[in-house]
Design a protein that fits this description.
two-stranded parallel ribbon; 9 helices; alpha/beta; about 230 residues; about 40% helix
């Protein structure tokens, strides 16, 4: 699995901390059959030039072309993107909620980033499946490919990007780090019946003892799955 590690250039940001924690967790866990490879690791020189380069009018297309070349050379089976829209890649792409911020909260992003990635996301054939599956369903109904009576919870869930995970698509436990009391638009459909464990520990510092505490908390819950009894 290739992982876009470029956000480590801004290690104190939320996505920078996420990538650092993800790489550390994969290194510690060493999942069988999975080899994670950080791609686009920022060099010291790149960190110094980052602010200057991002001001260039062609910065984002240039970065996309360079990353596409790396993906062709490295040929990962799966690619994990953290920069809104992936460069050209034939295999499955894993995205994060961060990828949606350009469309949902454009005022929080750099203008050049918004102009480039908002156009790219809207052109992406897979964007509807990832961002707004209801739009994909609406198009299928309008084109006659789907009967309106067939629009169910199952048909909606089958168009989410977590659908290939099958029974594992809907998590039983959501761990919210940093003491934040919100889900930040994360897997809103999938976590409808998940138990939420909030911990003050920051994600990069989250370790085995914290996971054990979350599991113990989960085991103590009386799960109702929408019931009131």
């Amino acid at each position: 699995m290739g992982i876009n590690a470029a956000p480590l250039a801004a290690a104190r940001t939320g996505v920078g901390r996420y990538i650092a924690g993800l790489l550390d967790a994969l290194e510690a866990a060493k999942p069988q059959g999975l080899r994670a490879r950080p791609l686009f690791l920022p060099t010291a020189k790149a960190r110094r030039l980052r602010g200057l380069v991002k001001r260039l009018p062609f910065a984002y297309p240039l970065a996309d072309a360079a990353r596409a070349a790396v993906l062709r050379r490295e040929r990962p089976t799966v690619y994990h993107e953290t920069n809104h829209a992936a460069p050209p890649f034939r295999g499955p792409v894993v995205v994060t909620v961060h990828d949606l911020s350009t469309l949902l909260y454009p005022r929080t992003q750099e203008p050049a980033r918004v102009r480039y990635f908002s156009k790219k996301l809207r052109r992406a054939r897979s964007a509807a499946r990832v961002i707004v599956p209801t739009e994909a369903i609406a198009r299928e109904v309008a084109s006659g490919k789907l009967n309106p009576g067939e629009v169910t919870e199952e048909s909606l869930a089958s168009r989410l990007y977590t659908a290939p995970m099958g029974d594992l698509a809907d998590p039983d436990l959501l761990v919210r780090t940093a003491g934040e009391l919100r889900v930040s638009n994360f897997l809103l459909w999938q976590i409808s019946y998940a138990e939420i464990h909030v911990t003050p520990v920051l994600w990069p510092d989250f370790g085995a003892p914290d996971l054990h505490a979350a599991v113990r908390d989960f085991a103590s819950r009386n799960r109702k799955f929408g019931g009131v009894g």
